[in-house]
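Structure ticket #2291
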Amino acid sequence: APEVVELTKTEKIPLVLHRKMRVLYVEDNMFNLMLFDEVMQTRNDVELRIAQDGAKGFDIAQTWLPDVLVLDAHLPDTHGIELLRQLREIPELEYTPAFMCSGDTQPEHKKAAQEAGFEGYWTKPVDIDKVFADLDAVANRTVFS
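Resolution: structure written out below.
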């Protein structure tokens, strides 16, 4: 007969709390940065870091390893597509979801971003509902542990 084990006390099972989604936003326009930051503060599941040029964005990404990349198309030192190419060379960021954020509404710009590996394209001024929906979609398929 199988042995019966009696439990004398209830073990507390630790609740696994997953960390916030790390979002890196690389944008040189201070107004856009402040606006995005303000909007992201309304979400308690997002930790936002910002950089004002590609080089600084790359430095932050290397050490902080964001879960989502949001890159402006026209940065002072590079183009968002080129920055994404560089970020993809960091092994941990090879498949990190990336979104282009740009004032360019031309279909060819969106197509170029898509071909470069951007998952989405947010035109400025950004549609907050769209941004949140895209971030929720990323969160729903990722465990931030």
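Closing remark: Residues 5 and 11 are 14 Å apart (CA to CA).
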